[in-house]
Q: What sequence folds into this?
């Protein structure tokens, strides 16, 4: 198990730059997820760590060792592929033991270790079967067992749950987390599913167009997104067009939609137009005319209400016709279409972002 | 994940049934009638021609030579075509299929023209011998014309694009992620080939090998033109038996033997491969 460092790594396919001077440090034993839309360069990042692609610039380090030019088979990596990539002509035992055999481990030792690993992934007794005889979820477990068989310095997983249905995906998330913690393997996980990323990861790197937009814990990404892209990609969020026009200590004052707002810790932002970002569940519905003491307020009218079990999602029309989404409890008496309401939220539950 | 390779066995089977069985049924019938002189035939149903075949070393040698040459061509075809097929299959698809199409298109050029080219290249004063003599590998021109080697080269040229086509389509269906999975879990390049690519393309190799073997067993032109009357494979002997000796019954017997041998070898291979598949649970 090792730490992994990408230092100024650029990845190219011909003339196309898929990864642009990425810096990334993954601590020993950490579970780091690369999150981003399709085509943003997640797989390319994994290919660089794995050694399937050589960076056109920059270095790849495992601990302090430079592995930039080392071929994949000598990097001691375990990898779970999106299509599992189990060998169809080998038994499950041979699949799981593949890496051990390639590294010269003896037959008896391989057999013991394979039994142990199949127990670990809770799939005992399938040794003599073939991949074609297992279900999708079972193949997934076998792929995971194969990847960690010869304890890897780094475990790479490229959208490993992409092919499973929702229920199984949630169950496998728990499994993956349990196994990763049991073995304490440095892990780089790739997904485009933000819920999955938040459930699993110690830290998340949100990627966009070959760059890392923000690298932080799930909590920080959610509460303090640094760019509009991150705010939008991780969870739902409302953007209100405002203009910063003054400061009060560490806070910023802004105006927009005919209203004045205050944003905690916004003093770093220059005067001028930007976006005020606030999550739907941070907005409270209150009766029209309620005094706004100690928080931001915005008047509007509910135009649409949707129930989704544990919460109600209201679409509120505010001055200027901007739709704002509010999430509130299913028992909220104000949540009916046509009601004139006042939206309220705390100063520290919103952020100012560039309108890019 | 379930790989269905069974269908690959079908082309060689259909090939042998279609071309060999249907067109030669007539010969199978006359193979049971003894030849009289000048192309006339006895009208009693008997095994005289088969007795003649299995007691005459001339025919037995010819059969052995034909099987040996065909097997050699199949094996050499695999060795020659496999790396090319692999490279083409792993190229960007547009390039791969274009190059493959070119190779396959070249198989529409009649073998007579190709052999003419071969005869020129391999001729005593041809460019190959000139080059070999110049760099001092041989002292005198080596001749492929009239030798088994020449016939093998001709048959290779005749069959190789079919082999290429079949191998290409099989290798293309092996997901690249399997190679990567093998590599990342510690296998060096040749181990990836040995443990993953080769076993997964085995059914295609059997299919391709059978087609080429079948084609070679029945190939007359290459054997006749490059053999120069000295390499007596069964198709050449059959032609002589019909045209020179006018022994139609004997020719029918020879054809029937080719047919039987080809069917037998195909069936055995099919059985072998399907047992392999069954063991794998696919
Ligand atoms: N082999 C390749 N050749 C050319 N371009 C590629 C290749 N692989 C990926 N790309 C391009 O690089 C970009 C990043 O791809 P990738 O890392 O696979 O994205 P992700 O895994 O985030 O969906 C995409 O625009 C993709 O089209
Ligand atoms: Mg990808």
A:
């Amino acid at each position: 198990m090792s730490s992994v460092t990408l230092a100024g790594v650029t990845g190219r396919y011909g003339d196309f730059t898929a990864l642009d001077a990425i810096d990334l440090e993954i601590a020993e034993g950490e579970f780091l997820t690369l999150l981003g839309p399709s085509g943003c360069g997640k797989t390319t990042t994994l290919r660089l760590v794995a050694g399937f692609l050589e960076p056109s610039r920059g270095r790849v380090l495992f601990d302090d060792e430079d592995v930039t030019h080392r071929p994949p088979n000598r990097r001691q990596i375990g990898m779970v592929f999106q299509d599992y990539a189990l060998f169809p002509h080998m038994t499950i035992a041979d699949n799981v033991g593949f890496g051990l055999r390639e590294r010269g481990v003896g037959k008896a030792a391989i057999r013991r270790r394979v039994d142990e690993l199949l127990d670990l992934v809770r799939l005992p007794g399938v040794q003599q079967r073939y991949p074609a005889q297992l279900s999708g979820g079972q193949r997934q477990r076998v792929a995971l067992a194969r990847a960690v068989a010869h304890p890897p310095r780094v475990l790479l997983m490229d959208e490993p749950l992409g092919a499973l249905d929702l229920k199984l995906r949630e169950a496998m998330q728990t499994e993956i987390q349990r196994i990763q913690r049991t073995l304490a393997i440095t892990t780089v996980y790739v997904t485009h599913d933000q819920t999955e990323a938040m459930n699993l990861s110690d830290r998340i790197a949100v990627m966009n167009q070959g760059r890392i937009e923000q690298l932080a814990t799930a909590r920080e990404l959610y509460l303090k997104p640094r760019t509009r892209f991150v705010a939008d990609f991780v969870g739902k969020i409302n953007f209100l067009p405002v203009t910063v026009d003054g400061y009060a200590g560490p806070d910023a004052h802004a105006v927009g939609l005919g209203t004045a707002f205050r944003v905690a810790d916004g003093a770093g932002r220059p005067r001028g137009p930007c976006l005020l970002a606030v999550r739907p569940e941070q907005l409270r519905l209150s009766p029209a005319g309620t005094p706004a003491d100690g928080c931001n307020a915005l008047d509007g009218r509910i135009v649409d209400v949707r129930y989704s079990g544990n919460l109600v999602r209201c679409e509120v029309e505010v001055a200027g016709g901007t739709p704002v989404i509010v999430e509130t409890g299913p028992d909220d008496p104000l949540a009916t279409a046509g009601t004139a309401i006042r939206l309220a939220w705390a100063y520290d539950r919103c952020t100012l972002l560039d309108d890019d | 994940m379930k790989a269905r390779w069974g269908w690959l066995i079908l082309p060689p089977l259909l090939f042998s049934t279609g071309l060999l069985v249907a067109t030669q049924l007539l010969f199978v019938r006359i193979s049971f009638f003894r030849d009289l002189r000048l192309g006339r035939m006895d009208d009693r149903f008997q095994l005289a021609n088969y007795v003649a075949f299995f007691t005459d070393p001339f025919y037995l040698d010819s059969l052995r030579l034909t099987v040996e040459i065909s097997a050699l061509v199949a094996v050499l075809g695999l060795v020659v075509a496999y790396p090319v097929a692999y490279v083409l299959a792993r190229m960007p698809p547009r390039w791969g299929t274009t190059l493959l199409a070119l190779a396959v298109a070249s198989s529409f050029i009649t073998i007579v023209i190709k052999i003419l080219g071969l005869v020129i290249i391999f001729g005593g004063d041809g460019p190959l011998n000139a080059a070999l003599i110049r760099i001092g590998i041989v002292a005198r021109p080596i001749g492929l014309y009239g030798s088994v080697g020449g016939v093998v080269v001709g048959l290779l040229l005749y069959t190789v694009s079919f082999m290429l086509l079949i191998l290409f389509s099989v290798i293309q269906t092996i997901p690249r992620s399997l190679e990567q999975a093998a590599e990342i879990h510690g296998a060096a390049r040749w181990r990836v080939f040995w443990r993953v690519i080769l076993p997964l393309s085995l059914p295609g190799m059997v299919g391709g090998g059978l087609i080429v073997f079948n084609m070679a067993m029945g190939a007359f032109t290459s054997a006749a033109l490059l053999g120069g009357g000295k390499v007596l494979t069964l198709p050449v002997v059959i032609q002589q038996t019909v045209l020179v000796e006018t022994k139609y019954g004997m020719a029918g017997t020879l054809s029937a033997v080719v047919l039987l041998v080809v069917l037998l070898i195909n069936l055995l291979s099919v059985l072998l491969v399907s047992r392999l598949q069954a063991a794998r649970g696919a």
Observations:
- The mean pLDDT of chain A is 90.
- Residues A 13, 16, 18, 36, 38-44 surround adenosine-5'-diphosphate (ligand 1) (CB under 6 Å).
